[in-house]
């Protein structure tokens, strides 16, 4: 049994009805020690404090195998089955084993617009480990909602191009947003980056980010090159949002 399967079955024991594996483990592109285990858990009704505490304990103690950590979203079945622009989130847990080690927990988030992309990706490429298939528990999310939220982050990152720690993340995620806006396709970051390079060979930040992904933070992703990419993606997504 894989680390993801083991955790999913433990979550089922804590009262979760469906557990969907998504992200790089489901869609391809998983990188040992770099990629997380991405899980979406769907349950009937709200999450009790006792359930939330037990799920947090399970995530903290879970064996992640060769993954870098775990990202888990827990949503109510009625939210997954009929999402709106600001879907409610019962629980978000993010564990990254570092260095440095980081653990984040959010409970009862009344409006979580970033959940829209997670729901859409889980429906498109997710694999049910426990419970019903993703398309049976997750309704389609309008593409314009996902593009709108993506443009929020693209605009924010445009003022953060000197953020060395998150430079490659910004570039590769922008490529994913770009491809989704143009083709309606969710795909792993590296695959989206190659698609974007084929579309515009002048955007050197993409090559820099891919090299950093392969060789580590010693590879610099230049701020002015990040800005050039973000400007292009903002323009492209404006035409399709």
Automatic annotation (TrEMBL):
The keyword Transferase is annotated on this UniProt entry: yes
UniProt xrefs under Gene3D superfamilies: Beta Polymerase, domain 2
Sequence ranges assigned to domain Adenylyltransferase AadA C-terminal in this UniProt record: 136-199
Coiled-coil regions listed: none
Domain Polymerase nucleotidyl transferase: from-to ranges: 16-56
Keywords: Transferase
Pfam family, one: AadA_C
InterPro entries: AadA_C, NT_sf, Polymerase_NTP_transf_dom
Keyword Transferase carried by entry: yes
Designated name of the protein: DUF4111 domain-containing protein
């Amino acid at each position: 049994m894989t680390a993801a399967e083991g955790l999913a079955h433990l979550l089922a024991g804590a009262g979760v009805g469906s557990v969907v594996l998504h992200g790089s483990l489901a869609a391809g592109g998983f990188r040992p020690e770099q990629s997380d285990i991405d899980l979406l858990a769907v349950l009937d009704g709200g999450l009790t404090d006792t359930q939330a505490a037990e799920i947090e304990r399970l995530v903290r103690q879970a064996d992640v195998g060769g993954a870098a950590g775990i990202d888990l979203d827990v949503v109510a079945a009625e939210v997954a089955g009929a999402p709106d622009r600001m879907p409610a989130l019962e629980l978000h847990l993010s564990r990254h084993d570092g260095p440095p080690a980081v653990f984040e927990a959010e409970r009862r988030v009344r409006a979580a617009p970033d959940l829209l992309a997670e729901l859409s990706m889980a429906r498109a490429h997710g694999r049910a480990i426990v419970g019903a298939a993703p398309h049976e528990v997750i309704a389609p999310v309008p593409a314009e909602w996902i593009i709108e939220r993506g443009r929020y982050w693209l605009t924010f990152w445009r003022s953060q191009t000197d953020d060395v720690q998150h430079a490659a993340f910004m570039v590769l995620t922008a490529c994913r947003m770009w491809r989704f806006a143009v083709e309606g396709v969710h795909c792993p970051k590296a695959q989206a980056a190659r698609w974007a390079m084929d579309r515009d060979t002048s955007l050197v930040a993409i090559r820099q980010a891919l090299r950093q992904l392969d060789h580590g933070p010693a590879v610099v992703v230049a701020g002015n090159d990040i800005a050039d990419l973000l400007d292009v993606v903002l323009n492209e997504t404006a035409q399709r949002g």
